[in-house]
Design goal:
By secondary structure, the protein is α+β, with helices and mostly antiparallel strands. The chain has two domains: 82 residues, no CATH class; 84 residues, no CATH class. It is built from five helices and eight strands. The strands form two sheets. Strands 1-2-3-4-8 form a five-stranded antiparallel beta sheet. A three-stranded antiparallel beta sheet has the order 5-6-7, covered by helices on one side. Helix 1 runs antiparallel to helix 2. The longest helix has 24 residues. About 13% of the residues have low confidence.
């Protein structure tokens, strides 16, 4: 049974986004402190920041007592627990609810290494000391699908099975994409003129 509600994110996606953010901020600081030698030195980091936010920092799957909230790069989908019928992995976590399939961008399929318990580049699980009170670090996202089904059974049992899945555009992502597109248009216009 599930004890606490969690949020699930792609650690690789977050790591990549943080690296891009750090490099972009350092590039912007360098351009500001050393003077502009071209508009591209400002626009490229701005576009990189927008992409890092939309694809690396925004995606998350939140578990709440009422619903599963899936924040994909451009959309937010709220799935009531009573509507969840199945959860499984294809290349990412897929939740079936109310006749639709919701792909959870932030929960990638577990790798063969995490399923087999093999060691990783930096020491991995082979070098760790296991204690019974800690969760298994090799499980990764492998248990997320079963966790979603457990939460649906726990929170959705007393509710109507025909809960409405709510899908809406994400204004924060639309703003980031808009800023990126404007920066790209300015850059192309400056290059052509």
């Amino acid at each position: 049974m599930v004890d606490a509600l969690l949020s699930h994110r792609s650690s690789a996606g977050q790591f990549g986004a943080v690296v891009v953010v750090i490099v972009a901020v350092l590039g912007l600081l360098s351009a500001l402190l050393q003077g502009f030698s071209g508009i591209g030195f400002v626009l490229v980091p701005i576009i990189a920041l927008c992409v890092a936010y939309v694809f690396g920092l925004r995606p998350v799957v939140h578990e709440t007592a009422d619903a599963l909230e899936v924040r994909n790069p451009m959309r937010t989908i709220v799935v009531p627990w009573g509507a969840v019928t199945d959860a499984f992995f294809v290349d990412v976590l897929v939740v079936q609810a109310a006749g639709t399939e919701i792909r959870c961008f932030s929960v990638p399929k577990p790798t063969w290494r995490s399923r087999s318990g093999g060691s990783t580049f930096l020491g991995g699980v082979a070098g760790r000391i296991r204690t019974p009170d800690l969760p298994d670090p090799t499980a990764g996202h492998a248990n997320v699908a079963s966790r979603v089904l457990d939460l649906a059974a726990r929170f959705g049992s007393g509710r109507a099975k025909s809960g409405q899945v709510e899908q809406r555009w994400a204004p924060d992502s639309l703003a980031a994409v808009g800023i990126g597109v404007v920066a790209l248009v300015i850059g192309v216009a400056a290059w052509l003129l």
